[in-house]
Write a structure and sequence with these properties.
alpha/beta, Alpha-Beta Plaits, Rossmann fold, 3 domains, four-stranded antiparallel sheet, 13 strands
Length: about 400
């Protein structure tokens, strides 16, 4: 592909991504993969170059752009080589007109940027749109980190998590023998750190209330050493059938013992979990959230979030915390996690719960990274080189 052809491809993809953001369609990565499935003439260098243009444009535009052309023009205004690709050639975009408006730069839609600025400084805000590292977690049931290191080209230990490895950008993890053998799983170091706050151990009854596809469930199982049959119980729950269906194949590859998998009916969770009432040593709530802490991986998520959707998420999070609290046995723990840096999804939720539930206290366990933020802890891309998280560990009286 010529530079002009790459620019035109980026514009076409950006148009699809903008439309999907407005209409709740597929994620950018999915749309890019589909686009190149039907364009076999594009080589690997072309695909990488187009993808880079697309994500440069997405990261630069805080508000959802009017069009893919407006989004890429904004990048071209700062990149002479790209601007020259708007040449009107057969497979390239038309020249930029004197009156054409490029998409304005910004962190996020104005209403959302304002909320983030209330508790994040400028360096932390700027880091939200950088490039995320590629991390994996070594499965302690299969190997040690030291044993895996030589078999993963370019890998290095992550700064904080004891089982984490950081891989070179672009590594095809699923093609590695260590992945096929169940010795590693893709998981951001921040996710490893907050999962460790559960302090799961052999013999415990542990509930992962919002398990999704099971990333944190696998980490909990490794800490429980299986769990071995007859020694502890791990319950993984979610309301999303499709995501939950991905858990068991991952568990089998990782050599995880019996997992009690439960599909929950929204609004009727208490009935499905009645046998666990007051019985769990740990309940982990990795609650659905805005995902502001994962913008480095999914920058177009800024365009999908609305104030109304955020309000719905906040209400759901509060309800999930109440459901989780009923499962915790006296003297045991609730661990609340969101991959968000908005206080209404993190610290405010915990303050509200503690205010409404006398006797519950904040446990003194400190994560291996992050900084205290009110009743919990916060990890940020700028300080910790992880995705952004809020985590709090609460003890039932």
């Amino acid at each position: 592909m010529t530079p002009a052809g790459r620019a035109q491809a980026a514009i076409e993809l950006l148009d699809q991504i903008v439309a999907a953001a407005r209409e709740g369609g597929a994620a950018a990565d999915t749309l890019i993969a589909r686009y190149f499935e039907t364009r076999r003439y594009a080589g690997s260098k072309d695909r990488r170059a187009v993808r880079d243009l697309v994500y440069r444009a997405i990261r630069r535009a805080g508000e959802i752009p009017e069009s893919g052309r407006a989004a890429l023009m904004a990048v071209a205004m700062e990149d002479g080589e790209l601007a020259a690709a708007f040449d009107g050639s057969a497979h390239g975009p038309e020249p930029i007109g004197a009156e054409e408006a490029a998409a304005p730069a910004g962190l996020a839609p104005a209403w959302l940027a304002e909320r983030l600025k209330r508790s994040l400084d400028e360096s932390e805000l700027a880091a939200l749109l950088g490039r995320a590292p590629l991390d994996v977690r070594v499965n302690a049931l299969r190997a040690t980190r030291e044993a895996v290191l030589p078999s993963v080209p370019g890998a290095a230990p992550t700064p904080h998590a004891p089982m984490g490895l950081r891989l070179p950008e672009g590594t095809q993890v699923e093609a590695l023998p260590a992945f096929a053998e169940g010795r590693i799983e893709v998981q951001d170091e921040g996710s490893q750190i907050v999962t460790a706050m559960a302090a799961a151990a052999p013999g415990m009854t542990v509930v992962d209330l919002c398990a999704g596809a099971g990333g944190k469930t696998l980490g909990l199982a490794a800490a429980m050493q299986g769990p071995r049959p007859g020694e502890g119980r791990l319950v993984a729950c979610d309301a999303d059938r499709t995501r939950l269906a991905r858990l068991m194949p991952r568990a089998e590859r990782a050599g995880i013992g019996p997992v009690d998998v439960r599909l929950l009916d929204p609004g009727r969770e208490a009935a499905a979990l009645a046998d666990l009432a007051g019985a769990a040593d740990v309940v982990l709530v990795d609650a659905p959230c805005s995902g502001t802490g994962t913008w480095r991986r999914n920058p177009e998520a800024r365009w999908r979030l609305t104030a109304a959707r955020l309000d719905r998420l906040v209400a759901l999070q509060a309800r999930l915390i109440r459901i989780a609290a009923d499962l915790v046995k006296p003297g045991a723990y609730l661990v609340y996690i969101v991959c968000s840096l908005l206080d209404e999804e993190g610290a405010d939720q915990i303050d509200a719960f503690l205010g409404n539930n006398p006797g519950w206290t904040v446990d003194g366990l400190v994560p291996m990274a992050g900084r205290q933020h009110r009743a919990g802890f916060r990890l940020t891309p700028a300080r910790d080189q992880t995705d952004g998280f809020f985590v709090a560990r609460l003890k039932r009286p």
